[in-house]
Amino acid sequence: MRYEAPESLEGAVALLAGAKGETRVLAGGTDLLVQMRADMVDPELIVDIKKIPETRAVTEEKGGWRIGAAVTGAELKEHPRLKQVWPGVVEAANLIGSTQVQGRATLGGNLCNGSPAADSVPALIAAGAVATLAGPKGKRDLPVEDVMLGPRKLALTKGEIVVSFLLPPRPPRSSDAYLRFIPRTEMDIAVVGAGVSVTLDGAGTITAARVSLGAVAARVLLVPEAAQAIIGGRLDQAAQQRLEAAARAACRPIDDKRGTTEFRIDVAAVLTRRAALIALDRARTS
Amino acid sequence: MAKHHIEAKVNGDAVEFLCETEDTLLDVLRDTLSLTGSKEGCSSGDCGACSVMLDGRLVCSCLVLGCEVGGRSVETIEGMAKGETLHPLQQRFLEGAALQCGICTPGFLVASRALLEKTTNPTEHEVRYWLAGNLCRCTGYDKIVTAVMDTAAAMRKG
Fold first, then answer.
1. What is the ipTM of this complex?
2. Which residues pair with residue A181 across a beta bridge?
3. In chain B, helix, strand, coil percent, each to 5?
């Protein structure tokens, strides 16, 4: 098993594109090392992307924020500004694992691990985040909701890596929230996750919204019908009911030891409503 | 393929070692550098028994590759006491019976010190959440949490 830690995107892409056997990108390693230990994967080449400056930076760009794919959850939490602008994204990233895992786990890894239950992904999708990929044919941008195709299945081509995420400019009176259900308070995998982002006008009416659900389908879902259910109003009781119905209708969950289909659909509706109320409250005071 | 030759700092001392790609930092610490204070519990990042500091950041050494630590600084439980003088957390864990079998203790101590370096006055809630990634099957956690809170209070008094 080869280990390489290139210092440039071109170097990483060339290594991955030129490899004959199975390859894995290493960011925080909190999934990859576990999978290697369990003999689930046995790559011939591991490319550590943490020495590539673009993967490790958090910078303002065009009025938005660009977050490197290998920035850790702990670093996001400590960032002086991100938590004010994108509290939902930061809180979602910080729900992944323990303090120890937070010291290593990254947004890029959480997405590319390809789990429908990844906590940061619904928050990124609700935020309208766009992933910047680098590959043998150069760079391209892909909305986060289009990166994951199904469990462990990504839209990335051979040699392509996720470099960073661009969170768009934030109008005034905008905010977001992420909630998940797990059977205890910490250290578990989402049974359902819900991310909501809203923008209000001066009168408090929702003018834009995005809703995303995790762990209720083979991939993390963007649910435009749920957003439509609350745009144009102030999230009164009727709008909350429409939001819950739209969330329910989007769910296609599996039945497993962590939650039955019926339970997941119920919880998805409740979490979506609660996350929307939190995002709305934050947007009013932002 | 040839082993990786890695130079790093462990507990302030320059060290060099050879490792295979798949060797974790925990493997290197225990089997190559004979620093067996860090324990292997789950090997999946759930139990925290292998907690160390990597460039000042609390991590599970079972989730770090040995070849990733080249040029970096690692602090383990072995560096916590200064000679014969225990760290206040170690002293308080002993006095407060915050351990029984002791397997989880190095991880709890390293993680607790990291918390007290960030905040000198943590709430019980903060202590419990910070230590959620450290598992103990003996104590029921109360004595551990109490020991950390007591140490913080004592350190604030100086």
1. 0.96
2. A192
3. 40, 20, 40
Q: What type of residue sits at position A282?
A: R
Written as one letter, the residue type at B124 is: E
Please state the domain extents for chain B.
Answer: 4-79, 88-157
B45 touches chain A (CB under 8 A): yes
Q: Select from A41, A29, A27 the least CA-distant residue to B61.
A: A29
Domains and CATH numbers, chain A: 2-167 (3.30.465.10), 174-285 (3.30.390.50)
Residues in Cβ contact with A286 at an 8 Å cutoff, skipping those fewer than 6 apart = A84, A172, A173, A174, A175
List C-alpha distances in Å: A274 to A211, A244, A269, A271.
12, 10, 9, 5
Q: Does B69 touch chain A (CB under 8 A)?
A: no
Q: Which two tokens stand for residue A13?
A: 């892409």
C-alpha distances in Å from residue B153, one per residue of A41, A207, B91: 47, 49, 14
Task: With beta carbons less than 8 A apart as the criterion, state whether A87 and A55 touch.
Answer: no
**Packed helices A237-250 and A261-285: angle between N→C axes, nearest 10 degrees:** 140
How many DSSP H helices and E strands does chain B contain? 5, 5
Query: What confidence tens digit (pLDDT) does each residue in A196-250 have?
Result: 999 999 999 999 999 999 999 999 999 999 999 999 999 999 999 999 999 999 9
Structural fold of domain B4-79: Ubiquitin-like (UB roll) (3.10.20)
Q: Are strands A64-68 and A58-61 parallel, antiparallel or unpaired?
A: antiparallel
| Whole-angstrom distance, CA of residue A146 vs CA of residue A215 | 16
Q: What is the pLDDT of residues A168-192, one digit of tens each?
A: 999 999 999 999 999 888 888 999 9
Segment (H or E) for A61 = strand A58-61
| B contacts of A2 (beta carbons < 8 Å) | 1, 21
Per DSSP, what are the bridge partners of residue A217? none
Q: What is the pLDDT of residue A185?
A: 81
Q: Quick one: closest CA in A to B61, which residue?
A: A100
Mutate to test the interface with A, among B28, B40, B59, B115 (most CBs of A within 10 A): B59
End-to-end CA distance of chain B: 53
- Domain B88-157 in CATH 1.10.220.10: no
